[in-house]
């Protein structure tokens, strides 16, 4: 597998495959901001909209490929306020259900962490569904649990679930 940072043109060229990954993730029950069933056209539109953020430097996106197929992704959303440019958020870490269990999630997370440090970011944060499978990844990757917010977001079935916030210091700060 290879992991590539996508510029806006490559993101647009990959929008169909990224949409397939997003639909698979939602269908698998992951709480990534969408309700099931997620219409593929809506998923393509969501990814297409991200291209402007990538072009503006507000978002970095990596795609993991198994051959020609996108099987994972992670994003790094940079803060835009003057008092918060030292931090960024890990967003949309997703691995296709049939590519899980091979360390791809950790590799994507590490890629985003390193890129953040290289960009001068010293603090990362993220949120994830409490007691979901992603929590194990974050804990074992050295992330610190900051707290839980009850009923923060609906899962793909529309049920409100608690969300756990995590942070990690990276780079030199």
How would you describe this protein?
This protein has 173 residues and is of the alpha+beta class. It has one domain: Gcn5-related N-acetyltransferase (GNAT) (Aminopeptidase), CATH 3.40.630. The protein is built from four helices and seven strands, in the order E-H-H-E-E-E-H-E-H-E-E. Strands 1-2-3-4-5-7-6 form a seven-stranded mixed sheet, with helices on both faces. A hairpin with a 5-residue loop joins strand 6 and strand 7. Helix 1 packs antiparallel against helix 2. The relative contact order is 0.16.
Residue share in helices?
25-40%
Q: In the CATH hierarchy, what is the class? A: Alpha Beta
What name goes with the CATH superfamily?
Answer: Gcn5-related N-acetyltransferase (GNAT)
Number of strands: 7
Compose a concise summary of this entry:
This protein is α+β, with helices and mostly antiparallel strands and 173 residues long.
Provide tags for this entry:
globular, 7-stranded mixed sheet, Aminopeptidase, 34% helix, 173 residues, alpha+beta, 4 helices, single chain
Describe the secondary-structure layout.
Elements: E1 2-6, H1 8-27, H2 40-55, E2 59-66, E3 69-78, E4 87-95, H3 104-118, E5 123-129, H4 134-140, E6 144-154, E7 160-169
Helix pairs in contact: 1-2
